[in-house]
Structures are given as structure tokens and as C-alpha cells.
């Protein structure tokens, strides 16, 4: 059983490797254990083996997949109290949502609702940008929007402020990489305005492809990550808050999966 009473490492890779090896040690057959962990975590066996061998450094979304299973935490806020310090630090640093507020519960179970109902996801993201009026939801989404609002209030994903405006509730959602792709593409299709690219200060669209060395490709990834983090830090400054409900969706990837390096 995975517990907080365990060896702590300063290195993230060492800690993850140790924790995975410790849980695999509990299985009589390690191969069966690897298959079970892979299935429960939603991580390929090859990836788990590379993490154990410390060949890969896991991102925060992979860490959530691993430690949701290992800690069996009821939600992602509770998970933070049951992992080693270096894991907790990596989760807080990597996740754009600040998770140190004990009154807020970060859940992975509600992700299915985001993916199932586009109205649910749009209202959720809009409320994340600032308070919205019930009347606006009815105007934009009609009767289905009002029904969805009632559901979100019941799930405590949304709440009603003292002035009657709709705000985010205590149950918030950590979005997986798979869901980011689905939701990101939806947001682009729904809100991206290519006709506005001629107007300065309205939006930004760009696409570029090139054959890169491994070193250059890693630099691309670093540039994207740094730009993304700068956007998040800007949002955390109260002086940056305003009435423009903006979204950003970033992705860089390889177009030759399965091909020889």
C-alpha cells in the first residue's frame, strides 16, 4: 500500500522511479503488475518502464495519472497531501490552476462532463474568466444552457455570488492532455476569428513546420512552455484582470510518429 511514510528524494525522476518500483514489488508477477498499472493509470507500459529507468522526466499531467492511482486520493487537492515534497512541488508548478486553497477541490471525475457537453465546457471556461449573469447564459445557450447551469450548480462546479452573478464553485477540474486536445480544438473551432487577423490587437494565429534536430526540437518545446507559463503568471497579477474573455491553446508535436529517428 502506498503511503506518505516512505523514502523522499530531491530528484523528481528518482522519486517517481522509486514509487513505481515500490508498488510493483507488491505484485507476485511484475509483468502482470505492469499491465495492471498501465491500464489503471492510462499510461503505456513502455512509458512506465522508461520512468522506472529514469530515462524520462514526467510532466505534471503524467504525475497526476500516476499518483491518482498510487495514493487513491478522493480528489487532486487531497492528492497533494499524500505525495513526496518534490512531487507536490512539480504538480503545483506545472498546473496553471493554483491548488493551495483548501476550500477548492480539484477533481478528475468531472472531466467527462466537459467532454460530453460542449455547453458545459463553454460555461465552465467563461466562468473561469470572470463572473457571468444567468441571463447571459440563457441568451447564449437557450433552455439547454439554463438546464446545464442548474446541473453545474448542483455539482458545485459553479456557485452563485452575493450579487447573483455566476462564478466558479468549490469543485474544479484538472484537465488531462487527452481532454486538452479535444477541448482546445473545440475552442478554436468555436471562437477563433481568422477574419480579425488584419486588425492589430485582436488575436494571433500561426502555423509553422520544419525538419529539426533533436536539440532544436527540445528548444521549441522549452520556448512554448516558457511562453505558456508567462501567460499564466500574467493572469495571476490582479492588475491584468479585465472584461476580455480570452483563451489560448498551444501545441507542438512531431508529424512522423513511428518513423526512425
Explain the overall architecture.
This protein is mainly alpha-helical. The protein folds into 3 domains: 84 residues; 63 residues; 69 residues, no CATH class. It contains 11 helices and 4 strands, in the order H-H-H-H-H-H-E-H-H-H-E-E-E-H-H. The chain has a two-stranded parallel ribbon with strand order 1-4. A two-stranded antiparallel ribbon has the order 2-3. A hairpin with a 5-residue loop joins strand 2 and strand 3. Helix 4 packs across helix 6. The protein is globular. The chain starts with 11 loop residues before the first helix and ends in a 25-residue tail after the last helix. The model has no long low-confidence stretch (mean pLDDT 88).
Quick tags:
globular, 11 helices, 261 residues, mainly alpha, two-stranded antiparallel ribbon, 3 domains
Query: How far apart are the termini?
Result: 40 Å
Spans with pLDDT under 50 lasting ≥5 residues? none
Radius of gyration: 21 Å
Average residue pLDDT: 88
Secondary-structure-based class equals mainly alpha
Query: What order do the helices and strands follow?
Result: HHHHHHEHHHEEEHH
Strand content: under 5%
Largest sheet: 2 strands, parallel
Secondary structure layout plus pairing:
Elements: H1 12-24, H2 30-41, H3 45-52, H4 60-71, H5 76-80, H6 85-94, E1 105-107, H7 111-116, H8 118-129, H9 134-154, E2 158-160, E3 166-168, E4 171-173, H10 177-191, H11 214-236
Helix pairs in contact: 4-6
